[in-house]
Amino acid sequence: MRIGFIGLGRMGANMVRRLIRDGHEIVVYNRTPEKTTEIAGEGATPSFSIQELVSKLEKPRAVWVMVPAGDATEAQIHELMAHLEPGDTIIDGGNTNFHDDVRRQAMLKEKGLHYVDAGTSGGIWGLELGYCLMVGGEGDAVTPLEPIFKSLAPEGGYLHVGGPGAGHYVKMVHNGIEYGLMQAYAEGFEIMHASDYDLDLAGISELWMQGSVVRSWLLELAGRAFRANGPDLDQIKGFVEDSGEGRWTVQEAIDHDVPAPVITLSLLTRFRSRQDDSYGAKVLAALRNEFGGHAVKTE
After folding, report:
1. How far apart are CA 20 and CA 179, in angstroms?
2. 171 is catalytic
3. Phi/psi of residue 161, each to 5°?
4. Which member of 178, 206, 220, 252 is catalytic?
5. Dihedral of the CA atoms 153, 155, 161, 164 (nearest 10)?
6. Which residues contact 41 (CB under 8 A, 6 or more apart)?
7. Tens-of-pLDDT digits for all 299 residues of the chain?
8. C-beta contacts of 194-202 below 8 A and 24+ residues apart
């Protein structure tokens, strides 16, 4: 297939490379032209404006947008709408809120355009291992794009999960689960790190990958991190960002009266990681001192 691809960051560039490797013709555009030129040297067709990108595609056109969710994606979609024609398709592969997908799909449908939301998981390893694709949208929009999805995904790694917004909805919950898994690993390794035993955390990570019920790709990555940075992780600051999906998952749980304590607490723990000195912890220490005379540490 021949499609357009907007956004050549770490993930987007590797997705383009994987598509080229599988024989697809990819017309690329990136806000910084240097990246466009780099990927063109690897077999992509370069374009240096949205108008040029659209002009190099055959009708009906399909354009994959892989830029940060929110305002950047919104602006890119509106710019594309000015150049696309009825029957063309926009694919959003970022971490978009599913409510935005539903709104955008309705907006584009009024102009005769298709909209597909592709929840994409795989990170920087996707080029080698493939990307897990959770795709939402109407069937007549999704089906013609399946050669692209199947090239990006490993065997069994692509599924049309439902209508508009369903792809990013499933990806949202996927990331909420990821928060909980990562938090459990983090707590377990912190307990072992604090123990009286001199434990080889990298070795234990690798051991647990062999037949253990807690084996996973995240555990494999933990072992790599310990090997690369040492068991104390001295070069890494314990400041953990979130990209939004965890918050949306918790909100969705609240909206549907679903108890999700593990995911919720893992999200709140990330918030705590961004505080150098928690004001709430200071209040707790002060209260313990007031009611029980417990000692407090002063700065």
Report:
1. 33
2. yes
3. -90, -15
4. 178
5. 20
6. none
7. 999 999 999 999 999 999 999 999 999 999 999 999 999 999 999 999 999 999 999 999 999 999 999 999 999 999 999 999 999 999 999 999 999 999 999 999 999 999 999 999 998 889 999 999 999 999 999 999 999 999 999 999 999 999 999 999 999 999 999 999 999 999 999 999 999 999 999 999 999 999 999 999 999 999 999 999 999 998 888 888 888 999 999 999 999 999 999 999 999 999 988 988 888 888 888 878 888 787 878 76
8. 199/231, 200/231, 201/226, 201/231, 202/226, 202/227, 202/231
Alpha helices in the chain (DSSP H): 10-21, 33-40, 50-55, 71-81, 98-110, 126-129, 139-142, 146-152, 166-194, 201-208, 217-229, 245-255, 261-273, 279-292
72: its two tokens:
């950047």
Annotation says 178 is catalytic:
yes
What lies within 8 Å, CB to CB, of 60 at 6+ separation is 87, 88, 89, 144
How many residues can be counted in the chain? Answer: 299
Instruction: Give the pair of three-digit tokens for residue 247.
Output: 């918050």
CB 286 within 8 A of CB 296: yes
Structure tokens at 131: 């990307």
Cα 101 to Cα 7, 53, 55: the distances in Å are 18, 23, 26
Question: Is residue 45 within 8 Å of residue 72, measured between CB atoms?
Answer: no
* Tokens of residue 253, six digits: 């749980």
Q: Which residues pair with 29 in a beta bridge?
A: 6
Is this prediction's pTM over 0.90? yes
Side-chain half-sphere CA neighbours of 158 within 13 A = 16
